[in-house]
Amino acid sequence: MNDADQTTTTGSVTRMTEQMTGVGASETPDGLRVSDLNIYYGDFLAVRKVDMTIEPRSITALIGPSGCGKSTFLRSLNRMHEVIPGARVEGTVLLDGEDIYGPGVDPVIIRRKIGMVFQRPNPFPTMSIAENVLAGIRLNSKRLSKSAADDIVEKSLRGANLWDEVKNRLDQPGSGLSGGQQQRLCIARAIAVEPEVLLMDEPCSALDPISTMAVEALMLELKSEYTIVIVTHNMQQAARVSDRTAFFNIDGTGQPGYVVEMDLTEKIFSNPTEKATSDYVTGRFG
Amino acid sequence: MTQSTIESAQGSGVEGRTGRFGDRIFAGLSKGAGVLILVTLAGVALFLFREGYPGINVDPSEMDGSDTFIQYVGPLVFGTIFAALIALAIAAPLAIAVALFISHYAPRRVARTLGYLIDLLAAIPSVVFGIWGIRVLAPLLAQNVYPWLGDNASFIPLFSGSASTSGRTMLTAGMVLAVVILPIITAISREVFLQTPRLHEEASLALGATKWEMIRQAVIPYGRSGVISGAMLGLGRALGETMAVAIILSPSDGYFWSIITNQNSNTIASNIALKFPESSGLEVNRLIATGLVLFVITFGVNALARRVAAAGFSGADG
Fold first, then answer.
1. Nearest CA to CA, how far is B223 from chain A (Å)?
2. Do B202 and A80 touch (CB under 8 A)?
3. pLDDT, tens only, B226-252
4. Rounded Cα–Cα distance for residues A248 and A68 (Å)
5. A37 lies in a domain?
6. What CATH number does the domain containing B195 carry?
7. What is the ipTM of this complex?
8. Residue-range definition of the domain harbouring residue B177
9. What is the per-residue pLDDT across A78-107, written as a single tens digit (0 to 9) for each?
């Protein structure tokens, strides 16, 4: 979302970007500031009292044993957990100083600013590769000239390191691609609407090692433009790609998950403050 | 020790044999059921053809009317397809809307109740719908709707001519047919909409889609082929529906485009039901021949529905 990008795209895209980011893309995004966040499903407290600052234009990894609420926490960052009936939160999540849970804030707008990539690649099966990339744009602005659409498709697919592999078959269905290609197509779809933050929920867990490498390389490129939060079960992956790591844990079944500690990734993996963290990253449990 | 080993070995051997025996019985039964359906279908087709053939080739002068068979069956084919298409045009959008409401909008308890009610609608005999149509719907429309349509919309060929005062029109018949086929289209649409993978719905929501946008982007494209085949099944049902039409429609001989007058092309099934009791000789053969035509039309529609469904599902798998 920097200036160079905007001058290369057409007017309609620029207008749209401004629409989506409110007052226009701020030069230095503020990242996400989470304070005192409790997440409930009905009466059940799933995650308790998270305080976290997610630095802009960096990769933050969330690690921890299964069921500790890291995915729930991730989904609460763009209000996607609300698709489950009864889900609610207490506390605040500030995006550029604005509470995404503030009164009158439409979750639909929040999700346009904070994109998401899922555990399993999920391109729309009935759409072509190009249409998949444009899916989010079509929601925002119905009218889009052919050339503007082509520009966005190329830019997004290049951004997702997929352009060279699919440029000759943009009108083929996205389901014909390999798993890794499909996942990069989903990333292209997410960045096509130029969000500020990209949430990734175990994006490589359904991929083979080669595809995983491609997606990891892509994440490292994307962090110059986007704030990335990734949930992963793969601690090597967290160590390889992330700048900061938060360790989630749970005291027992039925207990809420919570953040044990968050620090620079090197510190978490070499010299963590808490014993639980050190036990987990050295493989003593989890 | 040895004894028990031998016994258990024998036991398992016997078990294996009965298992295979049971398999063979079950395979035979299901095969028999499949063959029975084919035999029944072939029997019906054979009967229709054998009994109808004299009616097709008959010399017009031998009958009371002076129509050839083609002249006789033409308006009936037109009326059958016309009535079914009107029913489909009314029922399909309604069924899709109801199915979406049940699958994506209604709270769970409301959805379940509504689902039961819709299924219950399918259990009502169509003759009851026919009586309701002639006693309630027809007078209602004749008093309130048809005069208005005749006065204000007669420039559309469908609404031209003098409006019926009895309400026994093609539109009334089409509406009742729509109620008859609504449950089947709704049930099938509801099932395919519910099968939309959560992953696709979330993909759409995460891009910032509203609920309705999500439905248009993820749910409807995924379920489209299922909905189409459901509509085709409904169409097949409407083509063959007999009593509701026979009770409601006031038939005339010929092709009529207007759907609000007392002059309407009859449908094949309704025509058979009305004429069969007072027919004899070659007239019966001719009625059976029209039945053969209906058989072929319905067969064609169902075949088309299967092809659409098959093509769609393989596409949605990936």
1. 10
2. yes
3. 898 899 889 988 998 888 888 888 888
4. 6
5. yes
6. 1.10.3720.10
7. 0.81
8. 58-317
9. 999 888 888 889 999 998 888 999 888 888
